[in-house]
Amino acid sequence: MNKPNKRMKIIKNDINSKKMYSINESIKLLKKSSKVKFIESIDVAINLGINPKKSDQNIRGATILPYGIGRCIKVAVFTQGENVKIAQEAGAEFIGMEDLAEKIKKEGIKFQIAIASPDAMKIVMKLGQILGPRGLMPNVKLGTVTDNISQAIKNAKTGQVYYRNDKNGIVHATIGRINFEKNQIKENFNAFLKSIKKAKPPQSKGIYIKKIVLSSTMGVGLILDQSSLSI
């Protein structure tokens, strides 16, 4: 087993792994303990009281974070006709139909979000084995299969995050960067948590949100005291 390095030892000296921290304490500790030479992401993991083996209890959704996630989002758009110009003007990095599909097959994925107009889905479906496992398949419920290409690109570029639970019933997401102001991280967190609560499946019984952990890219996870949350 690898021994913790000096940086991690210092971080762990300031943190009680068994303690639950308020959202304000957590953000303060994460910012204080960030000592690496790059700007870390702030991530959240929420353990849900759902049965991920049952399809009617799985959740999948999207929400717009007030302050975005602090990094450039590259968008691929599957569309044709007049929508091509609309996508170009909206700032999409990759646009096309069969040509874009072939590019992805040969060169791999170089974008974070895929959007498609309804008439392009016949092309997109052929990429299911590539886009599906990475959670990139355009979806009507997420607003990524739409006739309003411009708005979908705008949402993607200005802070929309997509989420779904994993096989253990945990939802992971990036909600900002370590150099954000405390209130920005907090408001992004609140927006994300509100969306998760709204997505609760009717079939889910008992405690829905079991545990929330906030962490930075290279830091340790802090368990949140849910009684400190405003929503």
Poorly predicted spans = none
Treating each run of at least 4 consecutive H or I residues as one helix, how many helices? 8
Task: Give the C-alpha Rg.
Answer: 19 Å
What share of the residues lie within helices? Answer: 25-40%
Instruction: Walk across the major sheet and give the strand order.
Output: 1-10-9-2-8
CATH level-4 homologous superfamily of the largest domain = Ribosomal protein L1/L10, rRNA-binding domain
Largest sheet: 5 strands, mixed
Query: Mind telling me the CATH class of the largest domain?
Result: Alpha Beta
Q: Which descriptors would you attach to this protein?
A:
10 strands, 31% helix, 3-stranded parallel beta sheet, alpha/beta, globular, 231 residues, Ribulose 1,5 Bisphosphate Carboxylase/Oxygenase, 22% strand, 2 domains, Rossmann fold
Question: How would you summarize what this structure contains?
Answer:
With 231 residues, this protein is an alpha/beta fold. It has helices at residues 6-13, 23-33, 82-90, 98-107, 121-124, 128-131, 149-157, 182-198; strands at residues 20-21, 41-48, 60-64, 75-78, 94-96, 113-116, 160-164, 170-177, 209-216, 222-224.
Description:
With 231 residues, this protein is α/β, with parallel strands linked by helices. The protein has 2 domains: 17-68 and 161-228, Ribulose 1,5 Bisphosphate Carboxylase/Oxygenase (2-Layer Sandwich), CATH 3.30.190; 75-158, Ribosomal protein L1/L10, domain II (Rossmann fold, 3-Layer(aba) Sandwich), CATH 3.40.50. It is 31% helix and 22% strand. The protein has 8 helices and 10 strands. It has a 5-stranded mixed beta sheet with strand order 1-10-9-2-8. Strands 5-4-6 form a 3-stranded parallel beta sheet, with helices on both faces. A two-stranded antiparallel ribbon has the order 3-7. Strand 9 and strand 10 form a beta hairpin. Helix 3 packs parallel to helix 7 (149-157). 31% of the residues are buried. The mean pLDDT is 91.
